[in-house]
């Protein structure tokens, strides 16, 4: 599983095109895409290889067997309405598969995958109607009329994912003759016609198309698409959609985007919308909107985000809770919300260049995105609880699972947005590693990687990143091109990395850089080929205390090591213990041995069947044991278990 | 509002019939119904008067204006399918109104209410079909076929409420010529025919009809009805109903009733089913089932019940959570679940005579049932959160409100089960005050009341209870009939009442009874007319600590006074404070003055916009203030506010 598949070589200078999911027309930082950065192994490289070797074909198999891809064939054959299978948004999973495959084909030459990709595109294209409309759930005799259910129909949402697939394809294989971009453009033209300034003055219940239209505009040069994205963002928040039991907040139609104080409502929708709103703010020079989005990001991070980076506290409406409402056991923390949060943060990072955005991205990648797929890449968490109270059951591999109630990863869900979302994220992950600006290169995420780009002044820069991060904290960046004039290598020092150290080897000279603290560490010099910048991040396990306003975890601490949140899993307790019955002995320091972090726990006195509120009960007294914690992203891989991230100290 | 309406005199001896919601054919304790117990004022008498004077007419008005009662007229006129309004269970609200009115007419003569009652019965009866079928949502041309959606259709559930209304009527006005009992019998006969041993081997997704059939059997002598209840209970738990996303646990079809370890799934359904299962166990002498139900009650009380007595931790499926999963801010604690829990506990209390059942009933009555209605009886809480984080908005009095997301009581809901459920409970509350057995009288709930009954040996007993409980803890029981031989007056000493005292005045003699502790205090003697038993319960406010396994409230305490749980409400804080920003100073004792309980709080340092997990933050430091707590059942009556029951001490 951990073999890294061979990837395509990086672009040769100077005719580089950026091959990335987000390419703003203006930004503080310029994204370095798949042509300029290549993850070559390590934690993320291994996951990318599993994604390529197993996840993509697993998804395609399910798209076929569940009937979601055959829906397109039936649509083309005119036999759809009676036989359609899947939920109203199942088309989007096909498009996310295409996007994932497109990015993967940007990383690697794979004749078989290319053939499959083209075959799927052909089936999709065959279902498109003559005016550009494309959706298998609506519009045919026997189906609901087009655009008749904007609240729940997901038609524009599905098209958004279609556009993102087409953008990925055009960026990774410009001018490919498979027809996907044409399909997307025809659909986008219809959207602009139907929902334009003189059209239906509404928008989709599930945001997604906003960011997709902005990117389709960037890739095609069609400004109408960006204008349509702006219309969709501006129309939102004026109570246009029908009210529902959970209120219009569910689909962010309660408050205009620019007037919101924090993300709220359905957590995936909120983040997709925010990502699209950043795109709109960038394209329209809307500084007021941008400032509001920055503030919303900060408040959401500060009061509505789990320690894992996960977002969404409600099962009922898959939604954010109020400020400080972050229950561990009912954490929804949907995998797709984590991915959507990365999309929002990444756009702000490009716009502003603040290291804090990269901090949240790293936390979310390691503790939400990496948590979802199993080691073999063929089963997934949809929700990512922080506290599993009962061991649950092993999902039936041949069935679709309830999305959020199983305690173990499941191969597929009736609502199966997460697996292909993970796949497209991993396949494009190279693009989130580094950026450039006029003065140099910024490294945001640490992984073994090659980086090769041309700075604005025409200088070639080539770097090689070697690291076993997060196994250890040493990151070595070797400069492979000499420069006469100084340029700046900026390294993100994570918010948890107080005490990081940084040194530069140049020939026989070692320079220790003083005062490296969280934020950006910048090394400006005329680098020589062979110079090595070595960053060492402190990897001792850390005891972390929550803000006391987070009621759900009062009296608890968590343990982190590097970017990884750790968890206590019952399979590591003696005697089939239960994580609900132990108390952390906070007086005994954490230990590291056998490659794991160990903490000390005592047991609680046995529960009585009495009324559970009254006098202070006896303190923990049962035998003390030393227990190895598990990286949260690895939990649930050893059979049914109970698990908790927050460890009670009382 | 607090004027007590004049009630009918108690029955004259000896031809008493029991006028109570539950009359088991065998039980340890014999219920004393509305003919033998009359609440005469005080906390509950005042609520009964508001219920009679305002709530019943409020409900009837909404049943008319929402179209739920006119649905019956349309059904009779054959114009229903196109114009039906309301959810699939809206018929049941009409039946619960009838039940409430029937009990009220058992308490009080009211010509106007009697006329209204008969008119509503006539409209219901007109809609019944020739074979006894009665439901406005199913079975007509253009509607779904009868019994075609047992998971969600609520047809049998609605009939259960019809039967309970007919039982209430027959017990309060035996042989009334309004026809309601006939309507119920015809429907019950159809149910036995369709779902009997040779019929459809299934049951209703929403339990309710089980307890109703058992009682209808008791009131009519038709054993077929009890047998049908037994069939429904026995069939459950074998995965007969279709699976749903939340699993069959939602409607208790995952595990047979007798094999369950605790109540689980939808909290109202679980309690209604458990109540019906007790009835079945009693009627069929099924000791195994009975023992299982006792254990389920104990585990549910010990691990799945809020300090208020509320049950149900999930908004998503209105369900119990796992053991110890009791979030304050997402407490669902549906009013109807509290009422259903009282129904379950009451049946066990009659069967076993244990004081603990009365403890939970008292807690639930004071802190769930009394919390739901506003002081004027025309708006209601559907869910009863223990922590309101944001002030919310005042509901539109002319609209129906979302059931669980408003922070203030609302006049009506799309799902409006709670208002008529509160009404029928308050109107029959007299029946939950006291019981009798061969040796004497047991008083379970303390309220000003008259009690008059005949013991098994033919002796007349008449008592008068005088108390201002829970304003103070003195309960005076005056015996109004002399007895030559000893009989036993048993008084429930609540589980919180350590240090209660009890004395008996007989003529000039005062006898102090030693060692009164929680459980039953029994006074056995040949009482003389005029003897007074005085119980004094300790009413000093108590600081209560949760079991440390309840993660959601670790590091917090609650304050109780007598049977009332108290809460901190933001309107009592200075400067429009927020209950999320204060810390209880646990070193300062609680104080009582101006009729309220005062606690001391300090403020937290202002929240920063930073990542909320890291180093220990500064301790509370802001100015200290003394704040009056509010009885939980009174919160939300002074405009939008934030509120919390559990008070953080760190």
Characterise this structure.
Two copies of one chain form a homodimer. The first copy, chain A, is built from 14 helices and 24 strands. The first copy, chain A, is globular. Chain A has helices spanning 42-65, 70-77, 80-83, 90-107, 111-126, 155-172, 180-195, 209-220, 223-235, 267-284, 287-303, 335-352, 355-369, 418-427, and strands at 30-31, 37-39, 387-388, 434-437, 440-443, 449-454, 460-467, 474-479, 487-493, 501-506, 509-513, 519-525, 532-536, 542-546, 556-561, 564-569, 582-584, 591-593, 596-603, 613-614, 625-628, 630-631, 643-644, 647-648. In chain A, helix 4 (90-107) packs antiparallel against helix 5, helix 6 runs parallel beside helix 8 and helix 12 runs antiparallel to helix 13 (355-369). Helix content of chain A is 32%, strand content 17%. Chain A is of the alpha+beta class and 650 residues long. In chain A, a hairpin with a 2-residue loop joins strand 15 (556-561) and strand 16. At the A-B interface, helix 11, strand 14 and strand 20 of A face helix 11, strand 14 and strand 20 of B. Strand 20 of chain A pairs antiparallel with strand 14 (542-546) of chain B, so a sheet runs across the interface.
């Amino acid at each position: 599983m951990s073999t890294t598949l061979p990837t395509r070589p990086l672009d040769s200078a100077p005719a580089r095109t950026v091959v990335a999911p987000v390419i703003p027309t203006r930004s503080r930082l310029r994204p370095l895409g798949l042509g300029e950065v290549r993850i070559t192994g390590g934690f993320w490289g291994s996951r990318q290889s599993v994604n390529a070797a197993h996840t993509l074909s697993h998804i395609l198999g399910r798209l076929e067997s569940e009937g979601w891809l055959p829906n397109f064939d039936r649509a083309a054959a005119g036999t759809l309405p009676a036989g359609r299978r899947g939920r109203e948004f199942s088309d989007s999973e096909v498009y996310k598969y295409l996007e994932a495959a497109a990015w993967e084909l940007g990383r690697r030459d794979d004749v078989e995958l290319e053939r499959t990709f083209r075959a799927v595109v052909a089936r999709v294209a065959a279902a498109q109607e003559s005016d550009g409309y494309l959706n298998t759930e609506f519009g045919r005799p026997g189906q609901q009329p087009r655009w008749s259910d904007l609240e729940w129909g997901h038609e524009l949402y599905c098209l958004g994912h279609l556009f993102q697939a087409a953008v990925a394809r055009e960026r990774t294989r410009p001018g490919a003759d498979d027809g996907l971009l044409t399909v997307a453009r025809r659909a986008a033209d219809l959207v602009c016609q139907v929902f334009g300034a003189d059209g239906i003055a509404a928008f989709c219940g599930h945001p997604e198309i906003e960011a997709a239209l902005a990117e389709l505009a960037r890739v095609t040069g069609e400004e109408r698409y960006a204008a349509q994205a702006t219309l969709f963002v501006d129309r939102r928040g004026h109570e246009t959609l029908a009210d529902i039991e959970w209120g219009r907040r569910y689909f962010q139609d309660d408050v205009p985007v620019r007037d919101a104080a924090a993300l709220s409502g359905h957590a995936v929708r909120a983040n997709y919308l925010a990502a699209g709103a950043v795109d709109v703010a960038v394209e329209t020079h809307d500084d007021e909107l941008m400032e509001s989005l920055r503030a919303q990001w900060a408040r959401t991070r500060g009061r509505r985000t789990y320690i894992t980076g996960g977002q969404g506290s409600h099962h009922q409406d898959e939604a954010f809770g109020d400020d400080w409402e972050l229950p561990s056991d009912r954490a929804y923390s949907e995998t797709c919300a984590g991915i959507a949060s990365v999309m929002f943060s990444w756009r702000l990072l490009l716009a502003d260049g603040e290291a804090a955005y990269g901090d949240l991205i790293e936390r979310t990648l390691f503790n939400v995105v990496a948590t979802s797929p199993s080691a073999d890449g063929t089963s997934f968490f949809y929700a990512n609880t922080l506290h599993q109270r009962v061991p649950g059951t092993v999902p039936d591999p041949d069935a679709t699972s309830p999305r959020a109630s199983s305690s173990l990863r499941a191969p597929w869900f009736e609502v199966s947005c997460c697996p292909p979302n993970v796949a497209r994220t991993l396949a494009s992950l190279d693009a989130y590693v580094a950026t450039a600006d006029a003065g140099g290169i910024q490294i945001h995420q640490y992984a073994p990687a090659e980086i090769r780009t041309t700075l604005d002044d025409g200088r070639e820069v080539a770097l090689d990143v070697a690291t076993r991060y997060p196994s250890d904290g040493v990151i070595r960046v070797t400069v492979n091109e000499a420069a006469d004039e100084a340029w700046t290598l900026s390294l993100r020092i994570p918010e948890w990395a107080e005490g990081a150290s940084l040194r530069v080897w140049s020939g026989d000279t070692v320079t220790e850089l003083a005062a490296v603290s969280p934020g950006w560490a910048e090394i400006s010099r005329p680098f020589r080929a062979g110079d090595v910048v070595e960053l060492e991040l402190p990897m001792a396990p850390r005891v972390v205390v929550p803000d006391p306003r987070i009621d759900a975890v009062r009296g608890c601490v968590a343990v982190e090591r590097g970017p990884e949140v750790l968890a206590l899993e019952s399979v590591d307790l003696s005697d089939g213990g239960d994580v609900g019955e132990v108390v952390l002995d906070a007086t005994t320091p954490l230990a590291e041995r056998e490659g794991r972090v160990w903490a000390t726990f005592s047991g609680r006195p046995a529960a009585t069947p009495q009324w559970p509120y009254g006098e202070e009960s006896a303190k923990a007294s049962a035998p003390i044991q030393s227990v190895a914690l598990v990286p949260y992203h690895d939990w649930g891989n050893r059979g049914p278990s109970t698990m908790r991230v927050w460890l009670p100290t009382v």
